[in-house]
Design brief:
The chain is 37% helix and 12% strand. It is an alpha/beta fold and 297 residues long. The protein has a six-stranded mixed sheet with strand order 3-2-5-8-6-7, with helices on one face. Strands 1-4 form a two-stranded antiparallel ribbon.
Length: 297
């Protein structure tokens, strides 16, 4: 078996808490085993942490009414940027419909008859009117329906959302339930309330997170283009990062602490399923790496 080239430790990213030794300059299987061992060591540093963040509480009229604590999971500083970036890329790419489609020359209607004879006209030879070289003809290498979705682990997605929420706590406030304040749908009243909460609808992108959304609140806010009202079902990473101001209700903060805290209730079935998927991927990777070029063909 051919010898593999040795690599310098400077080519690998190594967190300060782990020291990597120089890989042995032996066979490919030995180098692969070395990389798996150090990959496991690196995974130990990708742990999570939780640090309570204090958020001011205001009344419906904008007056101070104490503070609230947002105690949720956050990624370590050295990995937070990568986790959030991966979450945003996955979320935006999974929104792509992938329905763009064009017709090739074999799919365009018409063109079955030769437009004119082969010789004697002084024109170029033409076998069909639907050639890509003519208007109305087929499209060369045009888009076809495609699935753009990519996979992300559930825990990684949840960690990206909680990390973004914790980082945005500086621009966040908590208000009491404002549902009963809107008896009738009125956009003007909702805009006035936003200004009391420190939001300029014409300049700032605002995000309101609540566990319950009444019909009057929905109708009063739907014409405000710079405002998003999210519930636990619609909470997403992109809108969190896009918002200049985050507004939580007290019920919303309790929900976040319950679902994204260190003691969050995650189903054991999901955890077992994730572990099984990870083992299958690792086994498949080892089988592929052990194959020779002859067996791979």
């Amino acid at each position: 078996m051919a010898k593999c080239l040795s690599f310098s430790t400077s080519t690998f990213f190594c967190p300060p808490s782990i020291s990597l030794q120089r890989p042995p300059s032996q066979s490919c299987s030995t180098l692969h085993q070395w990389s798996l061992e150090n990959q496991k060591k690196r995974s130990l540093t990708l742990s999570i942490s939780a640090e309570a963040v204090t958020i001011p509480v205001i009344t419906f009229d904008g007056e101070k009414a104490g503070t609230a604590s947002l105690d949720i999971k956050t990624a370590r500083p050295e990995t937070a940027r990568a986790v959030v970036h991966r979450g945003v890329v996955t979320e935006l790419q999974n929104r792509r419909r992938g329905t763009a489609s064009t017709l090739t020359r074999g799919e365009v209607r018409g063109g079955g008859r030769k437009p004119y004879k082969q010789k004697g006209t002084g024109n170029a030879r033409r076998g069909s009117q639907r050639t890509p070289l003519r208007p109305g003809g087929g499209i060369i290498f045009g888009p076809k329906p495609k699935d753009w979705s990519i996979k992300i682990n559930k825990k990684e997605k949840r960690l990206a959302i909680s990390t973004a929420l914790a980082s945005a706590a500086v621009d966040s406030v908590v208000i009491d339930s404002f549902t009963e304040k809107f008896d009738t749908p009125k956009t003007k009243n909702f805009v006035a309330a936003l200004k009391k909460w420190g939001v300029q609808p014409s300049e700032d992108h605002a995000l309101i997170f609540t566990t319950e959304l009444s019909e009057n609140v929905r109708l009063s806010s739907r014409n405000i283009g710079s405002l998003k009202i999210l519930t636990p079902r619609t909470l997403n990473l992109y809108d969190i990062l896009r918002a200049d101001k985050l507004i939580f209700t007290k019920d919303g903060v309790e929900y976040l602490n319950k679902m994204y805290g260190l003691n969050s209730a995650i189903r054991e079935e999901d955890e077992e399923k994730g572990e099984e998927e990870g083992k299958e991927e690792e086994q498949q990777y080892e089988e592929e790496s052990s194959e020779t070029p002859e067996t791979a063909q």
